[in-house]
Amino acid sequence: MNHGLSICRSLILLFLTSAMCHADDTDGQTRVINHHGFFAFENGQIVKGVSGTSNEEINKGWLDRLLIQFTTEFIPSERIKFIMSVESQFGFSYPQKISDRSTYLSRFWLYPADVEALYTLGNLQQSYLQFGFGYFPFKYDKYVRNLGEFLFRSGTYPPYIVNSFNMPFARLLGFKVSSMALGSLRQDLLFTSDAQIFPTQDFSLSYLTHYTIGKCLELGAGIEFAHLFSINEQLTSPDTFSSIDNKHQTMYIKENGDTGYYTFKGIKPMVSLGFDLKPLLPSAIAALMSPNDAVLYGEACVIGWTNYKNYNTDTNMAYPDYSDRMDRTVAMVGANIPSFKLFDVLSLELEYDPNKYPNSYLNVIESNLPAYLVLPSKNLTTLRWSIYAKKTFLDKFCLIGQVALDHMRPPQPSYIQTERDDVLSRHGDWWWALRLLVNY
Question: Are the C-beta atoms of 66 and 90 separated by less than 8 Å?
């Protein structure tokens, strides 16, 4: 009941804020206020998987949830825009256990989806320089539907990847500066406080560039200096950690003869590519396709550039290390399959992740450890895949479906009990999801 009241109060507050903006229009200036959002009902099933936290097999685990988002855009002038957006979810935990009554009941989530202020300089029709700050969604590859977007959906040391159904972007907290020159070159500079990747509140610096050549080719590159400015150095670069057996041990690293401590700080370079085949096809055939058809794209990212070799003078224990950069180099390729307007988009994506260790942030959260405490696993798959389809009908309705072996993690009754590992980690694991969405 308290969660429901919180949702109602938040929505009422947002409506009142918008109403106040409408009322304050006495100086003759043009103001624009837009309201939009969506609500969606989603069902899915983990057909085959395994819990990385409890090591229990998952077979035909049912998932469902309801999502609601309300957004207000206040535009007092052509150069200024304020965005306020809240999103809520209503769903159930998985798995439901007889021994844990907290898994029986539904859960409510309420969180900001987009809260930012934007100011634009320059020629609005041809080139501009835009400044913004707040908590905002950020996506640098317009073609990605599930896999990819590694730069802001991964953690360094240990490297791990997260993604969510129909959410191929990351929400960032901080400042951004964007530059668009004649529509062909885009640059983004971001200074963000880590709100999702532990250790939180550290500041990261990122730069991305995106260049369009003709009508076919798009090239992208970027780099993130993750946790560059630490708020709590003991959390970011701990000289001790709390192990599972509650003992404290000192971790050292050694690279090129230098000794230091393991750290969550890391450099992540990225390159991307997009190639639209439609301009090369006969015009009669291209006219039968949707705008998203016949596109090839890809991305590669090194999740932590620096190599670290294990060196522990206290225990002489052989902890896993980061001695091979290729183990931290992930890549994906995707193709938008021509459906000739049967779908808005029909994509197939493949991801190659050579990491020999579980895609997990369990030790990051529980032990504040930027290193592995497990040995390599022979059961992990290095190849992920995803098939995504979207169809709009009756103007406002969308049907979105996905079948995948990706990095999904099912919802659980509390943040403490959240699944820290991939539940789809082996060859043959997979799940599906279907969402009916209404835009308003």
Answer: yes
Pick from 152, 150, 165, 206: which is nearest to 331 by CA? 150
CA 404, 410, 415, 416 torsion-angle sign:
negative
Q: What length does the chain have? A: 440
Sequence-ordered strand ranges (E) for 139-265: 154-155, 160-161, 170-181, 185-193, 203-213, 217-229, 241-242, 248-249, 253-255, 258-260
Specify whether the CB–CB gap between 347 and 387 falls below 8 A: yes
Distances in whole angstroms, Cα of residue 362 to Cα of each of 87, 195, 198, 265, 372: 27, 17, 11, 18, 10
Kindly give the residue spans of alpha helices, DSSP state H, lying in 111-252.
233-236
> What are the Cα distances from residue 118, in Å, to 83, 178, 211?
8, 10, 23
> Please, what is the average pLDDT of the chain?
85
Per the confidence metrics, is the pTM higher than 0.70?
yes
| The pair of three-digit structure tokens given for residue 437, joined into one six-digit string | 């969405």
Q: What angle do CA 353, 138, 223 make, to 5 degrees?
A: 55
- Region of residue 151 (phi > 0: left; psi between -120 and 50: alpha; otherwise: beta): alpha
CA angle (369, 372, 377) in 5-degree steps: 155
Q: Assess whether pLDDT exceeds 70 at residue 312.
A: no
Of the candidates 347, 380, 303, the one whose C-alpha atom is nearest the C-alpha of residue 146 is: 347
Residues 6+ apart with CB under 8 A from 217: 273, 274, 275, 276
In sequence order, the 6+-apart residues with CB closer than 8 A to the CB of 245 are none
pLDDT in tens, 375-422: 677 788 999 999 999 999 998 999 999 999 999 988 776 655 677 888
Give the per-residue pLDDT at 368: 79
DSSP assignment of 264-302 equals S-EEEEEEEEEEE-GGGS-HHHHTTS-TTSSEEEEEEEE
